[in-house]
Write a structure and sequence with these properties.
The chain contains 13 helices and 17 strands. With 400 residues, it is α/β, with parallel strands linked by helices. The N and C termini lie far apart (47 Å). The N terminus is likely disordered.
């Protein structure tokens, strides 16, 4: 069994991502997907390990929400989603499913309801889905389906869902009261994209299954890129090609084609998970994907329902309030223990700039506190996990 690579450190038990807060009491995934960021962490093709008991996991999450983070965000009114299992698949083994239900029982008993996010490429079972529904919290499933199985190769090993299973998962979720489904299409690279003639049928099946939308993501670049996996070099060489954006490799021509197919079918297709969450909750997107330099890549090219664009448009059209903006900038300075002059703001652009290096989790906390009202940039953002979110990548490149 591979051991954990100490270069990356032990994964955080609680981590602030750009779209959600992750809780990771279980690490290690029995599947062996060549493109997975768990490779460099030595956490793929590995028996899952539960690091703390369920009560401790809930306590750690609550302590995080009510700790230093509460200086910026009131934990009792906070709506930042909680994602369980970024370093494993919580549905892939019997023990993981038991742990998932135990952790949900704990956190739903000590916290106010908020959206739960679950990501899997496993087959769901009705008993587990019904048990999750019984907790009464809203749940958004992201069903990861890369279509690598169509290559009939070794890019995905283990109990990984084929497309029929993914569709069946979504259909099962539609029978519940509190759960919805979305499709993670990742990595969207040249070698894994189905033939052009098949794409219309695929989109129609996704839509017909009850999926809310698809989120199309490329192959992330950075320390989480599993460059040592020979399968990538043999079957997915585009993962190592240069890309104008720099943070991911994605087949842009195929993206334009599939988004056109989705538009004709009336099926939402996004480039950021935050947009899927906003759609599922019928509210404006909360990070500001629709504004600033992120919009050209993550918003404008996407197939988004007009009613949802109006929701985000109403947020975009709200003029920044100088008094509130100055007050928020002062709160950020205090949170980061910076002098007030190290935080500047531009009311016309709705932009707050931090003239300092900021830890990734602190940046994401500020992003969540801003709730899309302001764009947040920094001199640099110090990485704290194997991959950075797109906002940290884009807005750490802004100049002082």
């Amino acid at each position: 069994m591979p051991t954990h690579d100490a270069r990356f450190g032990e994964p955080h038990m609680v981590a602030e991502h750009d779209t959600w807060i992750s809780l990771d009491p279980v690490i290690g995934c029995p599947a062996d997907c060549a493109y997975c960021y768990l490779g460099p962490l030595r956490l793929k093709a590995r028996r899952p390990m539960q690091r703390v008991d369920t009560a401790s996991a809930g306590g750690l999450l609550r302590a995080y929400l009510y700790g230093r983070r509460s200086e910026l965000i009131d934990p009792d009114t906070d709506t930042t989603p909680i994602c369980l299992g970024n370093y494993t698949d919580m549905l892939m083994t019997r023990d993981n499913r038991r742990a998932l239900l135990g952790i949900l029982a704990e956190i739903t008993s000590i916290l106010s309801p908020r959206l739960l996010v679950l990501i899997t490429k496993s087959a769901l079972d009705k008993e587990t889905v019904n048990a999750i529904d019984g907790f009464g919290w809203p749940v958004l499933w992201f069903f990861s389906q890369s279509f690598a199985f169509l290559k009939q190769g070794r890019l995905e090993l283990g109990r990984v869902a084929d497309f029929d299973t993914t569709i069946g998962n979504a259909e099962l979720v539609t029978t519940t009261t509190n759960q919805r489904a979305a499709h993670f299409w990742r990595p969207f690279v040249r070698e894994l994209i189905p033939p052009l003639a098949e794409r219309h049928r695929i989109v129609e099946r996704l839509k017909g299954s009850g999926m809310q939308c698809s989120v199309v993501l490329g192959m992330a670049r950075g320390p989480g890129t599993p460059a040592e996996d020979r399968r990538l070099h043999e079957a997915m060489p585009s993962a190592f090609e240069s890309d104008p954006v720099g943070s991911e490799v994605i087949d842009r021509e195929a993206w334009r084609e599939i988004s056109t197919v989705a538009r004709r079918a009336g099926y939402p297709m996004y480039r950021h998970s935050s947009c899927a969450i906003a759609l599922a909750q019928s509210r404006p997107e909360q990070l500001g994907t629709w504004g600033g330099v992120a919009a050209s890549e993550r918003c404008l090219p996407c197939q988004c329902p007009s009613v949802q664009r109006r929701r985000c448009g109403s947020r975009k059209e709200q003029a920044a309030d100088q008094v509130h903006m100055r007050s928020f900038a002062d709160e950020v300075a205090k949170f980061l223990e910076l002098e007030s002059g190290e935080i500047t703001y531009d009311v016309a652009k709705g932009l707050i700039h931090i003239h300092a290096s900021v830890a990734e989790f602190d940046y994401n906390t500020i992003l969540h506190a801003a709730s899309g009202r302001y764009l947040i940039s920094a001199r640099s953002i110090a990485t704290q996990k194997a991959w950075q979110g797109s906002f940290a990548t884009v807005y750490s490149k802004q100049k002082d």
